[in-house]
Amino acid sequence: MAESTQIVDTTANPAPLGLLGFGMTTVLLNLHNAGFFGLGTMILAMGLFYGGMAQIFAGWMEWKKGNTFGTTAFTSYGLFWETLVFLLLMKAWGWWEGPAEGAMVAYLFMWGLFTFVMWIATLKHGRALQVVFFTLFILFWLLALGDYTGSAAIKHFAGWEGIFCGFSAIYLALAQVLNETYGRTVLPVG
Fold it and tell me: In terms of residue numbers, what domain contains 75?
């Protein structure tokens, strides 16, 4: 008789780390977009480390768990934050002229398109995750439209929408932590 071995995954859920890295950094950047304060080192540091590196780590951990959606989402958005910060810093460091006219519109539009398709994938998941991705693809396209038209009003509105998006990710992350900690639904995720 052949023996079989069953491997049980006892690793932690990396999604709260990735969601918090995304959510907190998104809220802070969009507080800037909504006009509360300038774009400074606090946002850039969050983008590099918590929004960027923490999400990349979460994506790698999701890969280990066999979660293609989580791997793709966290790694991609972590690299989004890394590229965004470098797009802003390279010009300041004198490395390049900065993005060409209209380039940021294309950049933001493509991230919105990617997010739209990822949102379609969330339709197989809970409502809270659907809200995060729905509001994120709207945010990317509002930012692209704001850059395309040069409208400060659209960018300001995008900031408020982005604050909501970021807080929806924070809610989902903390709901997962609390629900797993207490072994019951403390905060619903749909």
Answer: 15-182
